[in-house]
Give the backbone structure.
Amino acid sequence: MTRRFLFVLGSARLDGNTELLARRAAEQLPPDVEQEWIRLADHPLPDFLDIRHDGIVGAIQPTENDTIRQLLDATLAATDIVIASPVYWYSLSGLTKRYLDYWSDWLRVPGADFKATMAGRTLWGISALADKEPVVADPVAGTLNNSAAYMKMRFGGLLTGNGSAPGDVLKDTEALTRAKTYFTQEPPLARFPTP
């Protein structure tokens, strides 16, 4: 199967630091690797409504909303999903969190076999943060790791860079160096943390 990377851009800012870091990492991918880039701000999702326990069977129809269908199709087609979200208030951006919330719906889309399809694929994370201490991004890494573990996916970890003002991450030479080899690793299957 040809590798296909889906870059899910969760920043509200065009060409923000997280996107710049993601593009630097993507430059290192071999030319035969397909790439698709989706900016969530350009594809707004409606508020997520959790109807799992409402007794409604077959109510989830992503075909009724072009944005939901596009994101579902792109996600299912990807061998590697890169969540590129800045750290906002010590977590994922709201746009990114809403996209992941829809995974709950997609588990129940008839014929999608979402969880079975995603099993064994790889989830990656890229984040820019304004703090100099990377530990500030631990909640983002935890969310992505646990999401991957639930879906039985591999988790490539979280590539972080420092940046607040536009373009700041391009001054973070350590992050740019890590970006050069970020996608060369073979990540293990994600596991939930043990107490």
Summary: The chain is about 30% helix and 15% strand. The two ends are 37 Å apart (CA to CA). Residues 44 and 67 are 7 Å apart (CA to CA).
